[in-house]
Design goal:
With about 200 residues, this protein is α+β, with helices and mostly antiparallel strands. It has one domain (about 5-200). About 25% of the residues lie in helices and about 40% in strands. It has four helices and eleven strands, in the order βααββαβββββαβββ. The strands form two sheets. Strands 1, 5, 6, 7, 9, 10 and 11 form a seven-stranded mixed β-sheet that branches. A four-stranded antiparallel β-sheet has the order 3-2-4-8. Helix 1 runs antiparallel to helix 2 (about 30-40). It starts with a strand and ends in a 5-residue tail after the last strand.
Length: about 200
């Protein structure tokens, strides 16, 4: 059974819990394992951008507001709304930053839940492996698909504004992932027991 690691607790608390939970196994595995386990708490995740945003099959990644849509696209979106489906699809670019003075880590998978305007929507798993070398940020693409009408009122203009935020335009603070990384170490896979918030940095 994989060992578990606390999320965004104060560093002293996290280190104490790591020692308590893994003590005997870590000591048996030696100093290299200690460094690998401690390194997990220093890997930072944030949203760096979005690629390929579509709403009801219409490319929206070049627009920043509802007014930027052409008359034809607006009509197509209104038709999709009338049919009761307004699917949004986008690939979120998650940046995993391993500090320069850290040890090499390997991301095994990322269980995620998408929040739009602080509302919980869909969940999924990114299960491709990524090496996280020290000092070299790595971009991890996470594709999300959500029908906005499953979670929000049927008002086209606000929904388009929300979709634009998720697709890279508009207000980026309206979107975030709550995710649980699993990272490989000499002890085997270690999974954070609680989700961490992955979002845009203020001013980014």
């Amino acid at each position: 059974m994989p060992a578990t690691l606390p999320s965004r607790l104060p560093a002293p608390v996290r280190r104490s819990m790591l020692v308590t939970a893994l003590g005997a196994s870590i000591l048996a595995s030696g100093c290299a394992t200690l460094r690998q386990v401690a390194a997990l708490e220093d890997v930072d995740f944030s949203l760096a951008g979005v690629a390929g945003g579509t709403l009801a099959g219409i490319r929206i990644d070049s627009a920043t507001s509802y007014e930027d849509l052409g008359a034809l696209d607006a009509a197509r979106l209104a038709a999709a709304l009338s049919r009761g489906r307004l699917p949004l699809e986008a690939t979120l670019q998650v940046r995993a930053s391993n500090p320069e003075d850290n040890v090499r880590a390997r991301l095994l998978k990322l269980d995620w839940t998408l929040f739009l305007d602080d509302r919980k929507t869909v969940s999924g798993v990114m299960d491709r492996e990524y090496e996280l070398p020290p000092g070299e940020p790595v971009t991890v693409p996470v594709t999300v698909k959500v029908d906005l009408l499953d979670f929000f009122d049927r008002q086209l203009e606000p929904l388009v504004g929300l979709a634009l935020a998720a697709a890279g335009g508009g207000e980026p603070h309206r979107i975030r992932l709550e995710a649980t990384p699993s990272i490989q170490t000499a002890l085997g896979p270690i999974r954070y027991p609680q989700p961490i918030r992955i979002e845009y940095r203020v001013g980014g």
